[in-house]
TrEMBL record:
Gene3D superfamilies: Winged helix-like DNA-binding domain superfamily/Winged helix DNA-binding domain
InterPro entries per record: CBASS_pafABC_assoc_protein (IPR051534), DeoR_HTH (IPR001034), HTH_11 (IPR013196), PafC-like (IPR028349), WCX_dom (IPR057727), WH-like_DNA-bd_sf (IPR036388), WH_DNA-bd_sf (IPR036390), WYL_dom (IPR026881)
One function term, GO molecular function aspect: DNA-binding transcription factor activity
Name of the protein this chain belongs to: Transcriptional regulator
Domain of life of the source: Bacteria
Domain HTH deoR-type: 1-61
Pfam families: HTH_11, WCX, WYL
Species per Swiss-Prot/TrEMBL record: Catellatospora bangladeshensis
Keyword Transcription regulation: yes
């Protein structure tokens, strides 16, 4: 791509110029120029003194249609602290040399203007390593070949099966393979993969398959399984922001009630834990159901009064 852009923005280039601009050897530059011709790009060489490589008739590609904003956005991912692979960073550093001159300075500035730190405050600074078989599985997805997959489940049982790799998803520090199998659509944590063996057979990829949409469905199903309990409540309007901070995606906000409060639904994996999370919000939130959560809240309130309420002499229990 970089060589093609160079050819489009200069009337003629030599192998030596390509090598110098893209930080590769002249031998590699000549090989890649030949490869463009083999791939059907109308490039030809001019022999003799003052010769070089040109595009026939000023042929162009849509890559030259990059706007300044698009070029900046592209190079935002290549910064020194970004999470892309070293190969992506190297490729983009080479590609920047082939951008039109007015875009080049801004693209280089974009590459150093953004730092993405995925670590939460107070969390370990240890950098998670990519799973062992990530590259092999990504290659299988790109080439569209089935693989014989060894896999260890959460109970430690190892199995082997043939899968149709459809895509790879990074969820926080974890990587997942989305595949079709004989048992239907399945998702595998890549750090649990024990072996990968390409079969050479082509992947069957449904015509309507969309990786992003498929992952949204998978993630929604996982969330439903992780948080099977629902609490119904009404909340003071000014406290909705507090609930969003505390419950994130587990919170669903509904409409307003007759008294101006807001109906909400909060999901969790245990009624007692949900009651504990809501106990500190009693000033703003009234739980309307289910009854089990209300009972837990009442028990928590009794326990709080017993421990921290005033005794018969008017002193706090905790002060005795």
């Amino acid at each position: 791509m970089a060589i093609l852009l160079l050819l489009q923005h200069r009337e003629q280039v030599t192998a030596a110029e390509v090598a110098r601009e893209l930080e590769i050897s002249e031998r590699t530059a000549r090989r890649d120029l030949d490869a463009l011709g083999m791939a059907g790009v109308p490039v030809y060489s001019v022999q003799g003194r003052g010769g070089g490589w040109r595009l026939v008739g000023g042929a162009r590609t849509d890559l030259s249609g990059l706007t300044a904003g698009e070029a900046r956005a592209l190079f935002l991912v290549a910064g020194p602290a970004s999470s892309v692979t070293p190969a992506v960073k190297a490729a983009l550093r080479k590609l920047v040399h082939a951008l039109p001159e007015p875009f080049r300075a801004q693209a280089e500035a974009a590459a150093s203007s953004l730092v993405m730190d995925p670590q939460r405050w107070g969390s370990s600074r240890a950098e998670p390593r990519p799973p062992r078989f990530l590259d092999e599985l990504q290659d299988a997805v790109i080439r569209g070949v089935q693989v014989r997959l060894g896999y260890v489940d959460r109970e430690g049982t190892e199995t082997e099966r043939t899968v149709h790799p459809l895509g790879i998803v990074a969820k926080g520090p974890s990587w997942y393979l989305v595949s079709d199998t004989e048992a239907g659509r399945r998702t595998f944590r890549i750090d649990r993969v024990s072996s990968v063996g390409p079969t050479g057979d082509p992947v069957y990829r449904p015509d309507d398959f969309d990786l992003a949409e498929s992952w949204r469905e998978i993630a929604d199903e996982v969330e439903r399984r992780r948080t099977p309990f629902e609490v119904r409540a009404v909340c003071a309007p000014h406290a909705i922001g507090v609930l969003r901070m505390g419950f994130g995606g587990r919170l669903e906000v509904g409409g307003a009630t007759n008294d101006g409060r807001i109906e909400v639904v909060i999901r969790g994996n245990d009624e007692y834990i949900l009651a504990g999370e809501l106990a500190g919000l009693v000033e703003w939130v009234e739980v309307t159901g289910p009854p089990g959560v209300r009972d837990h809240l009442a028990s928590i309130g009794d326990a709080l009064v017993e421990r921290y309420g005033p005794d018969r002499h008017g002193r706090r229990t905790a002060e005795r």
